[in-house]
Amino acid sequence: MRNYSVHLICHLLVVLTGLAGGTAFGLWLFDDNTPAGWLALLALGVALGVLALQAGHLRRERAARAPRGRRTLPDLGTH
Predict the structure, then answer these.
(1) According to the model, what pLDDT value does residue 57 have?
(2) What is the spatial distance between Cα 5 and Cα 2, in angstroms, rounded to a whole number?
(3) For 18-57, how does the pLDDT look when each residue is reduced to its tens digit (9 = 90+)?
(4) What is the torsion angle, in degrees rounded to the nearest 10, for the CA atoms of residue 43, residue 46, residue 50 and residue 56?
(5) Domain that holds residue 44
(6) What is the 3-state secondary structure (H, E, C) of the chain?
(7) CA torsion through residues 27, 31, 36, 40, sign
(8) What pLDDT, on the 0 to 100 scale, is given for residue 59?
(9) Does a structural domain hold residue 47?
(10) In a domain, 1, yes or no
(11) What is each CA distance from 5 to 38, 48, 60, 65, 72, in whole angstroms?
């Protein structure tokens, strides 16, 4: 539950960059605005970067909570 705030913040950032990128893409496509096309690509890169950072953060949190003991297979007998 403590990672839920990170999850929501990352989704909010991705939605905002998606709106900015979609608007810029529309300007590039329909108004032939070249800088808006670059802005759309930049927004896509930022959104993918935020998702990668979120995945890395959640993976680190999960690894920190994992038990550090030696893992062994259960003894199934010698049949």
Answers:
(1) 84
(2) 7
(3) 999 999 999 999 999 999 999 999 999 999 999 999 888 8
(4) 140
(5) 32-63
(6) CCCHHHHHHHHHHHHHHHHHHHHHHHHHHHHCCHHHHHHHHHHHHHHHHHHHHHHHHHHHHHHHHCCCCCCCCCCCCCC
(7) positive
(8) 81
(9) yes
(10) no
(11) 31, 19, 16, 18, 35
List b or e across 3-37, with b for residues whose CB sees 16 or more CB atoms inside 10 angstroms.
Answer: eeeeeeebeebbeebeebbeebbebbeeeeeeebe
Provide the number of structural domains found in the chain.
1
* Rounded Cα–Cα distance for residues 14 and 70 (Å): 39
Supply 19's token pair: 């709106």
Q: Residue written as tokens 């991705």?
A: 14
CB proximity list for 28: less than 8 A, separation 6 or greater: 34, 36, 37, 40
